[in-house]
Amino acid sequence: MARSRKQRAVSNTAAPTSSPSYIEKKKTLSIKETESQQSWSRTKAIFKYKLVPPIFVLIFTPAVQFLACQANNPASSFEFERTLGNAFSWKVVTIFFCWALLFLYIPSRTFNGPPTEFGYVPVYVDNGMLYYIASFITYLVLHVIYPDLSLDIYNNMPYILGSLNLFALILCIILQYMGINRPQTSEKLERSSLMYEFYRGMEIHPRLLGVDVKQWTNCRVGMMSWQILIIAFLIAGSREGSINPGHAANVFIQTIYIAKFFWWETGYFNTLDIILDRAGYYICWGCLVWVPCFYTYSSFYLVEHQSTFTSLGAIIIVLIGLIAITTNYRIDYEKQIFRDTKGDCKIWGEPAKYIKAVNQITKQPSNLSLSGFWGKGRHLNYTFELMAAFAWCFPGYGHGFWPFLYFIFLLGLLVHRCYRDEEKCSKKYGRFWDEYCKKVPYRMIPYLY
């Protein structure tokens, strides 16, 4: 009798899990979850493919003119002719573009970038430091010959940005046409809206006039224009005969940062900008227009709005900036040494520790470093890059948020890039990446984030 009651109790307990109503409820919940995921995917796709491209193009393209006027002459109104450039701006832009192109034709060592998923190996010209030094010295020589050069560049900055804008937009259209009608690789790329393709770009490593487009736009034009312009702004700001200590600190820190970039240019060819981003509006317009306008903005702003820093304050902020840049370089150097030796090296005086992984795309063996800075945080290089940027923006303290625009922008950019990078690594390494994240749980700030 007791056994019969017990059996009935078990039967009654189990009944709901096998009843049609329970199964139907589970199916309904599963369908709702699937529909919710599909709805979110559709919303995300609309945002990514339909909204972001036109918003970026319509807002950021004219924004450079507003920013130039805000720093140079806030009282001036928008003038359409500035968007077309003038004789001086087109002369400066043309000479500089040809100069940057020339150094990609000079016989030099070559560097092979990482192969793409479809088997293409990009080839770059390895003479970045030569180009940097030659450009720096040439500008100073030109300034001796033409003493008003820097002041003219500063006064014509809205026109220069207008010329850069027009050229960059035309280049992006050409690259889109080439990618659609005359692709240079065997990559099978799924088509999307023309606006999104213009914004994103069609090809990862297009070549034009015999050179790699992104090496020319990103490194040789974008980064070198950053250097030349901040030197011009420093000289323009000292037109009364004395150099402001805060402005000098601002330019000096940036100069060290840019020189470090050209010293390490081949390392840049392993970053997301090169291996993931396609040559379109986002990266090419960004380097041809946004970098000269926005990355130089703290220096540009300090011409008319003098820094209040004393010499001592300037020295302190320079030291902070140098520490940040040196540490940033050390982090990148550790990654490069680890990659070049395949983990057979010493980091921080000890044999490198790593996770033996397998690339899920190529099925080739790979290693994930657990040593040095890469064992403390997954993106500490971004942290110290932000620290350096804050250091060179800080001399503008007391003039509102304008001198800090670049730091604010970079903060958003690098946090977003952090997640993009991890999404790429997750696809590339699968469960090995999950294991790495468990061993190195922090992204940019150990024990906090």
UniProtKB/TrEMBL annotation:
Residues 9-21 have a biased composition (Polar residues). PROSITE patterns: STEROL_REDUCT_2. Pathway: Steroid biosynthesis; cholesterol biosynthesis. The chain crosses the membrane at residues 51-68, 88-108, 129-146, 158-178, 279-297, 309-329. It comes from the Eukaryota. It is found in: Endoplasmic reticulum membrane. One of its GO terms (cellular component) is endoplasmic reticulum membrane. Pfam families: ERG4_ERG24. It is an enzyme of class 1 (oxidoreductase). The keyword NADP applies. PANTHER family: 7-DEHYDROCHOLESTEROL REDUCTASE, DELTA(14)-STEROL REDUCTASE. This is 7-dehydrocholesterol reductase. It comes from Daphnia galeata.
